[in-house]
Each structure stands twice: as C-alpha cells, then as structure tokens.
Write a structure and sequence with these properties.
Chain lengths: 299, 400
C-alpha cells in the first residue's frame, strides 16, 4: 500500500483532461482527478447519466484518458458486472472495472442493480459521488438529499424525509470493503482508493461531494463546505473492511476534539435557509447522540 | 448428430456451439429452461462461459451490452414482460451497435397475466433497431441461433431469435445438431469488436449533439441523426448478409436455403397464407387439404421480420389473387402489424392481390386447423367480401 501524506506525493500523471465541462468549484472534478490517479491507466469506467457524463464532454470529445462506457441510468452495477465477465472470459484479469455514479443513480434508480451485484460478489469498484440531489437535471431531490434541503422538487419548505444511508445499506450485503470519503479530503480518498485497487470482490465508495450550484454557496468554498460537513460530524469518514467498522482520518481525529456546531454548516448554504431552528437543534442532538455511540465503539 | 429434445434445448445447444463467452440470465416462463440448460452446460464444464445470474431482465441485457462492448460474445433470453422490462436496453443495444444475440420465446404480455404464446412481446420491440428472425421448428431454432451470431457480428446489430412459447419451446421434436467443427468454421473470423480496452481508450455512447461538429483533428464527426441514419442503412443492407450466412451454412450443413422466408406450394398458388413462426406448419396441412379439393393455395413463413424483406416478398405475393395474413399480434386501434406492412409493401406494385387480416391465438387461444381451413377456404371463394371484415378475429368465443 503506497500511502501518500502530501499532495506533492500524488502520481504526477493526469488521467483527466483540463478544460472539461465541470462547473466552477465542482467537487466531482476534484475527486475524479484524484481517484483516477489511484485507479491508474489499466481501468475501464462505467458511467450512467450524471454530472460525470457532463464533465466528460460531448461527442466526439472526452475528458478522460481511460476507456469509458456510458450506460443507462438503472444499469450501472449490472453493466460493470458485464465488463468484468467479458474480461474474465478473455483472460484480461489485471484490468480494473470502476463504476462511477451519482447519488440519484445509486440510491434511487440504480440500487436494484447495485444490490444484485453485491449479492453476487462481483469484482469491481463502485463509486457513488454524493452531491445530495439530481444536479445535472437542475437540482431535484434524491434519496440522499438531507432533510430540510430546498430542491426544485422540494420547494418552499425543503425535503421532509431523512436521507438514505446508502453506505450502510451496501455494507449490509457483507461485501469486502465499504469506504466513505469527502471531496475535501483528497489524500484520504487517494489512499483508500489505492488500497481498494489491490483488493478483490466488490468495493463500495460513498464520496461526499459539495456542489456550489446545487447547494447555493460560492464556488471558492467547495473544500471548506466539505470540511464543515465532516467537522460538524454530519458526514463521517470511515471504512468497513470485512465487516469491521473504523472511523478514519479527520473523523477519527474528531473523537478527541470539539465538533463544530451543525448550525454553522447549515447557515452557509442557501438550500437550508428554511430549516427551522427547532429542526437544527434536533439534528444537533441526534448528531451528539451518534457521536457518543461512536466514541464508545471506537475507543 | 440427431436428437429429440425441446426447442429451448435446441436454442441452448446453438448458444453452446457458438462458443458464447458471457451469458446473462433471469428466469421467466417459457424461456427459463433455455438458460437452465446453459447453466447445466457451464456447470458440467461442457461450455466455457461466464454465467451471470442477474436480478432482473433489465440487468440481463445490461450485462450483455457491457460484455459485448468489451469484446465478448454475449447472449441472453427472455419472454413477454421480461422483454418489455428490457425495452430501454433493447434500444440501447442497437444504438450502441452491439452484436448481442437474444432468444425471445414468444408469450402474450400482461395485463391480464398470460403465460401462453402469442407474438405481442417481440412485435412491441419492432422499432428498436434489432434484426428479428422467427424460427418455425426446432431445427430452425438451432440453425438460426448459430447464424444469428454471424449476422450480428457482421453488421454489428443485435439479433432477436423469436420462437413460439410451449408450441416450440417445450415440445420434444427431432432435429440435427451440427458438428462443433462445422460451427467453428462457420463462425471463424467473426467476433464482437473489443471497444473497451485501456491500451486504446474510447468513450462510448457519450452525449451527442443535434448537429455535426469537428473532432480534435478537425474531422467532422457525425451527430445523433447521422449515427441513426447509419443504423438504418446497415439494417436495410442486412438482408444480403442474412442470405450469405444462410448460403454458407447450407454449404457446411446441407440445411437452409430459405433465409428470408419459406414458401410451401406457392409456385402456382392463387391464394397465399402468410404468418410468422410455428403456425406455418399447421397451415401446411390446411393447404394440402385445400389443394386436394383443387383450390390452389400456398403458405409463406416469414423468417426475417426486420429488416422487412419487402423487395423480395412482393414478387412472391403479387402474382397471387389474394393474400391472407394470420397474426398472433395486434396494433391496438388499427390492425395486425404484419398486415399493415404487407399492404404498404404492395402499394407500389402494379398488381395488388386482395389482402385480408386474421388475428389468431392471442394469449394462447387454441388455433384449430378447422378454423384455419374455414378462414382460408372462405377467402378463396369470395376474397372481396371477406376482406371487408378485416381484421377478423378467429377463435373468439361468443359472450352473452
């Protein structure tokens, strides 16, 4: 495992072209660039409709140097299974298959195919970048949109329901490796991804990915926004390896630190502007309760 | 080698002989025994293939689409609502130009539920860009499955091999299995293109604009409409590829010779019955009976349904006085789809036979030889009067 501790230690080779179609301050563009460095050239990407389809660009232009098959929305994990089956049939065992979908494509329309692939114990990496709504169609609510967030389909009062915890749903399939990451901690992402590259079986990544356009903040604050989500304890960085849960990186360090009040995170994005004070307090209490549990299990 | 087996086993044996590399399977009646047989072949080591037991039909075709993009020979099979559940992927496979072969074991679609045979399922996928072949016997099933891989891989268009649920899929009939070395020779030089390869990266099926634009070298790249036009052109050229595949197959096995449609006693026929699938075998008996009463009739079993072989069919039909189209499908609110197409095909001809449409056997309704006989005999006596009742439902029970 080649762990990196500084950005300068990351592989120099860029597999994502500059000048792609990502929005200014796009969290996805950060993690795409970083993760592909960890996955390397001998990788085939499987991509359903998502911001990544847009980032990659319009025919005949492509933003990546990796082979990529764009697939239908519901089929990501099944398509990745198909690529993997073809590679096995042809004896091309070293090539890695990486499916890369958004939160809508993973938590909603694609969850059946993902669950099927997990149950079959397929051999590929599945990456869900979670920007917490259907972003490239203009910010509609998804299964992972947090409660209280304004979207175009949860207007005026925000989303009434809690978000799905997709990483835990996937982990319930007893797959070898589940990791959560954040676009604001690229080295943590790189290290987890580089390690997962060496494993076999299905490996799931859930990556918290701030979206300036969808969340309503200035594009220069993407990294700060992601860090706030982690520092408030609203999004946890962890790994579940062969069933063993452990907090990692900034979340692990948070066990011994004072957490930032959740109110801080909510107040700097326009999508939470209608979140009632009482609900913010309830979320704070719930977060405190969860972290007390984490402290007990992780100490 | 001769054997007596089911139509589903005949299809599975064809898939095995074609050395298919990836099989995706989800159970649905009456297709299930086909993919069960393939799982047996793989488990017993008789066949070296990746067998992926997926969680839905949508995923079954997704697996094939991706596997075919990565250069593997891929196969799946389905029926009825399973086929409809694949619908999005059926369009995708043709649009992506992938040489997948799929057996459609024809069954009526819900609601209400029916597990019995008609052609509404495959007919509903008519406009997806696939090649549609219909087999009328067990022998045709195994031969057509093998030919389908050659055809698909030559023109890079997926092929549906359709055959009747239960009537063919579950019945035992004798057929001849070609030797492996003959099939190997037949498919030599034929393979899916390996589009997904890190040593030669490509981005497949990207967002494509309404208008053409230059690529990085300044060459004009086709837009969506040009790409679709290519599919249409290649599909219409497929007729010749189907004919060539059949000629080569006949040279190797001695069987074939009717690549687009099969005629029975049509040479001097004044009246021709035309249909898809196993019904043609039943109609042969009707024709024999009418011939013995000096009524000059014949049967055409259409094997290639898409691309529609209008150019080749018209000279067979326009010399007849009347053409009776028996269909196990309906374009609701209008008439049988095959009937509409034959009418359109004959429009440009100088001689137009009288056409009549009979809807039969929906949802497995028994098609009696007596009913077929009556319909064809009545038509031969007075085609013009009969024509006015089109489309005519045959076998419909009277309700109070």
């Amino acid at each position: 495992m080649n762990t990196v501790s500084k950005a300068i230690d990351l592989p120099i080779e860029e597999l994502v072209h500059p000048g792609n179609r990502a929005c200014s301050g796009c969290g996805l563009s950060l993690i795409y660039r970083t993760a592909l460095k960890a996955l390397g050239r001998d990788t085939i990407l499987v991509v359903p409709p998502s911001c990544l389809t847009v980032l990659q660009g319009l025919y005949p232009i492509a933003a990546t140097q990796l082979p990529c098959v764009n697939v239908t929305f519901a089929s990501t994990a099944a398509a990745a299974s198909g690529v993997q089956a073809a590679l096995r049939a042809q004896g091309r065992q070293n090539t890695l298959v990486a499916a890369w979908a958004g939160d809508g494509g993973t938590s909603d329309i694609g969850i059946q195919a993902l669950s099927g692939a997990c149950e079959r114990q397929e051999n590929f990496i599945y990456i869900c970048y979670d920007n917490e709504a259907y972003m490239n169609t203009g910010v509609q609510r998804s299964g992972t949109t947090p409660a209280g967030a304004l979207t175009t389909t949860t207007p005026l009062v925000g989303k009434a329901q809690q978000r799905k915890n997709v990483a835990r749903i996937v982990a319930a399939h007893d797959i070898p490796y589940v990791a959560t990451c954040s676009a604001s901690y690229p080295l943590d992402l790189y290290n987890k991804m580089a390690r997962a590259r060496t494993m076999t079986g299905i490996r799931y990544f859930h990556i918290h990915t701030p979206c300036p356009a969808g969340w309503g903040f200035d594009p220069r604050f993407t990294v700060k926004m992601g860090k706030l989500a982690v520092e408030t304890g609203l999004f946890e960085l962890y790994e579940i390896e062969n069933g063993r849960f452990s907090l990692t990186g900034a979340s692990k360090r948070l066990l011994d630190k004072e957490r930032t009040p959740v109110e801080k995170y909510f107040s700097v994005q326009s999508r939470f502007k209608v979140l009632p004070r009482e609900q913010v307090e309830r979320i704070q209490q719930e977060t405190d309760r969860r972290w007390n549990e984490l402290k007990q299990t992780q100490s | 080698m001769h054997c007596i087996e089911t139509g589903n086993t005949a299809a599975a044996t064809g898939v095995k002989l074609a050395r298919t590399q990836v099989i995706a399977a989800y159970p649905i009646t009456p297709q299930t025994p086909l993919t069960e047989k393939l799982s047996e072949f793989v488990a017993a080591g008789e066949m070296k293939a990746e067998y992926i037991p997926v969680e839905s039909e949508h995923s079954a075709l997704s697996v094939c689409i991706a596997a075919s993009s990565a250069g593997a020979r891929a196969f799946t099979a389905t029926s009825a609502n399973g086929l409809l559940y694949m619908h999005e992927q059926i369009h995708w496979a043709a649009g992506a130009r992938l040489p997948i072969v799929m057996c459609v074991v024809n069954r009526g679609v819900g609601a209400p539920w029916s597990v019995w045979n008609d052609h509404q399922d495959s007919m509903s996928q008519r406009d997806t860009g696939w090649i549609h072949l219909h087999a009328a016997s067990h022998q045709q099933i195994i031969d057509t499955v093998i030919q389908a891989f050659r055809i698909a891989e030559t023109v890079r268009i997926p092929v549906m091999v359709c055959y009747d649920g239960y009537l063919l899929s579950h019945t035992y009939m004798p057929y001849e299995v070609p030797d492996q070395d003959k099939v190997d020779r037949f498919l030599a030089g034929s393979a899916p293109a390996r589009l997904l390869d890190p040593s030669s990266p490509m981005n497949l099926n990207t967002v494509t604009l309404p208008n053409t634009r230059p690529d990085v070298r300044g060459d004009i790249a086709p837009a969506y409409m040009e790409i679709r036009h290519c599919l249409q052109q290649d599909l219409t050229r497929t007729t010749a590829v189907v004919e060539q595949a059949d000629r080569d197959y006949r040279d190797l096995t001695g069987r074939g010779g009717h690549p687009l449609y099969e005629c029975y006693r049509c040479e001097d026929a004044e009246f021709i019955a035309i249909c898809l699938g196993s019904l043609s075998r039943q109609l042969r008996g009707v024709v024999d009976s009418l011939r013995s009463a000096s009524v000059k009739t014949g049967v055409i079993a259409l094997r290639l349904y898409r691309p529609f072989p209008a150019e080749q069919l018209v000279p067979e039909l326009d010399k007849a006085r009347g053409v009776l189209v028996f269909e196990k499908a309906l374009s609701y609110g209008y008439e049988g789809p095959l009937f509409s197409e034959l009418k359109a095909a004959l429009y440009h001809g100088s001689r137009r036979p009288v056409l009549h449409n009979c809807i039969v056997g929906l949802g497995g309704r028994t098609i009696t030889t007596a009913d077929l006989h009556t319909a064809l005999a009545d038509f031969c006596v007075d085609p013009e009067t009969v024509r006015k009742a089109s489309p005519q439902w045959i076998g419909l029970a009277p309700l109070k």
